[in-house]
Every structure is written in structure tokens, then in C-alpha cells.
Design goal:
Helix content: 25-40%
Function: Probably acts as a heme chaperone, transferring heme to an unknown acceptor. Binds one molecule of heme per monomer, possibly covalently. Binds 1 [4Fe-4S] cluster. The cluster is coordinated with 3 cysteines and an exchangeable S-adenosyl-L-methionine.
Number of strands: 14
Subcellular location: Cytoplasm
Shape: globular
InterPro entries: Coproporphyrinogen-III_oxidase, Elp3/MiaA/NifB-like_rSAM, HemW-like, rSAM, rSAM_sf
Strand order of the largest sheet: 7-8-6-5-4-3-2-1-9
Protein name: Heme chaperone HemW
Structural class: alpha/beta
CATH architecture of the largest domain: Alpha-Beta Barrel
Oligomer: single chain
Radius of gyration: 21 Å
CATH class of the largest domain: Alpha Beta
Strand content: 15-25%
Number of domains: 2
CATH topology of the largest domain: TIM Barrel
Keywords: 4Fe-4S, Chaperone, Cytoplasm, Heme, Iron, Iron-sulfur, Metal-binding, S-adenosyl-L-methionine
Distance between the termini: 30 Å
Number of helices: 15
Length: about 400
Amino acid sequence: MPAQPEGDAAPADGLLPPSVLPGAQDRRLSLYVHVPFCSVRCGYCDFNTYTAQELGPGVSQEAYAADAETELRFARSVLVDSGLPHRPLHTVFFGGGTPTRLPAEDLVSILGTARDQFGLAPGAEVTTEANPDSVTAQDLRVLADGGFTRVSFGMQSAVPHVLAALDRTHDPRNVGRVVEWAKEAGLSVSVDLIYGTPGESLADWDRSVREALSYEPDHVSAYSLIVEDGTRMAAQMRRGELPGIDPDDQADKYELAESVLAEAGFEWYEISNWSREAHGRSAVENRSAHNLAYWHNQDWWGVGPGAHSHVGGVRWWNRKHPVPYTNAVRAGRSPAVGREALDEETRLFERIMLETRTADGLPVDALPAERRSEVAGLVAEGLVDGRAAVGGRVVLTLRGRLLGDAVVRRLV
């Protein structure tokens, strides 16, 4: 797993500086709950996750809900004592790890504490990630009855040998079953896919996309495989046991996904995400509101080991391992290990980097005055949509999405 960011020491009381106050009333507040448990660690994964055998003394999955709820109460007191206005939660997202390694009743209990401490905005989106083999129909009914509105299933692939290369343990035949259970419970459904796995052919990827569409989800995410140093897959590549990542292969697979998803009525709204009109909701309404909160740099509090938070240009991150995290929370101290206040230059860079990823795009006038002339060149090169640019926004073309990092470098 990667090292944590460098930054200033985080205060034990968690209080935030006065710089977070201007404009707070106009910013939405979201909640991320990190559940750091998995049954096995996938070879490509560098997320902050732990199997039961890796947990230290005094830490258990059974006690996790109580610890997360303690941090939620701490979060509420920090925001109040820092002078921030009360804001109900616009979105709540349970990620991991595998959140559904916890009993559904525990997830509902954590959500209940969040509701008690902050309230939920009307129509708030409440999502949990889930592996296809980690939930039952009853679990999904409990989640829906407890206030969850959405579930995101980690399908990754429909092809057994690709799943094996990723160390995914679920049976691909389970995906259709759990999607149907989720719909019967009244939950919106997203399906997550990964492309570019060593040994995955273009035909394999086409099969995975089409099989995901056969389940009729509201939303699809498709992420290129990124292999980070320190993972088992990175070591296998270094030893020559697996081929390396081929950017041209990933580009071909992205273009295939865009073509097949568009043909099925899905609209891209962020480089890796598509939604469609379904179940009485428009494609815009079926977008992930929680992810949009990140891309539009709203405020969020991250609960759990290693979780990151952001409020008004101040960012902080919790202790990674569950043992020191748990010790801090139970002692009434902030579990944060470091934080940073972003300067204006960094905030502008991040805004350009994030908003250009979205179909709504970035206002041209948000760019530094000396960089606005670059937009015309990017249009001429087919990287930015000309009609959107005339309307005052930087929106990537399909080719621009494939070269998004290069576009950002030009704009900053």
C-alpha cells in the first residue's frame, strides 16, 4: 500500500482554521465511510484494506460500526466548534475494502448515526459498494429499508480467466442475480468494470461490457487497470510473469466501451462513468452524485482508517492501520495523522484537473487569463469540443478523454 501524504501534523482536537468558513453555506457536505475489510487481497489492489488475519489486537469487524459511529459524533462536534454552519448530508458513500463484509444491520446503524448527527438532505443519495458474492437478497432489503438508495457492484469482468488474473473470487454468474435482487429491493444499481488486465483480449472486454448491459443497470463505471508499486501484480510484472500494461490496448478498450454503451443509451458524464435514463429517472439523475461532489470540489468528511476529508480547501487524512485509528477514536482524539491547507494555485490546478474530466466541463473563464488562448489550439487538434468552447466551456472530445492528462498540462 502507498505511503500516506506528507503534510502538517493534525491537531488532536481536529478543529479547522477560519479559512474554511467563507462560502461554506453554499458548499454541499458529503460523507465517505471507509470499511477496510476484505476476504482476500486482490493482486492489483493498493487500497487501505485488511483481511481478518491482518488486523491487530483490539480491532475486529464486529466492533467497527461502533468505532465509525464514534468518529461521526466527533466529526459533528468538530464542524460545529469550528464555526461551520449546519448542512445536511447531500450524499453518503460506503467504500472499501468490501463494506458488505459487515452485516447489513451494521451499515444501517452507521447511516442512522450519520442521519442523527447531520441529517440527510431531501433526495440524498446513499450508496454502498458490494462484491457480488458478499450480499444476499435479505441484506439488500435491509439496506433499502434502512435508507440506502444505491448499490455499486464490483463486477470487473464477465470472463473467468480475467477475474482469476485480478484475484477476484466471485462467480461471474452471480452478478445478474444480485443486480436483480437489488432492483427488487428498490435500489438503483451501478456496475463497475476494469479493462486492460494482462491476458484480456478485446473480445473478452466486449463480452464483459455487453454482459454488464444485459443486467440493465442505471450506471456503469469502467476503469483502466492501474498497477501500483508494492502490489502483488506489480511484482509479477517485474519478474516477467505477467505482461505490462499496454496504453494502446487500453485506449482501444475505452473506445469500445464508449461505442457499446452509447449504443445502449448510456451517456458519459465523467471519463470513467456513464449513466442512462431508467426507472423514471433521467440520465442526469442517475449520475453518481457522490462522485460529482469530489469532481466539483465540495466538502466531505471521510470516516475510517486512511479515509481522506476535505472542507473549504483544507484536506486531512486518518491513520491508515485500524489499530492506531481505533485507539485515537476511542480516546476521543482526532484519528487524523496529517493535513494541509491548499494554496490558491493548487486549488486552481485541481479544479482544472477534475472539472475537465466531466461532460459538463470547465468554464473557460476559470482558466488563468494567459492560458485561455490554448483552448482554440485544443479545439483545432480535436481534443476539445468546438461548440462547447464557443459557449464558454472546455469539454473533452472522445480523443480528448483518451489524452486528458495532456490537455490538463496544456491548460495549466
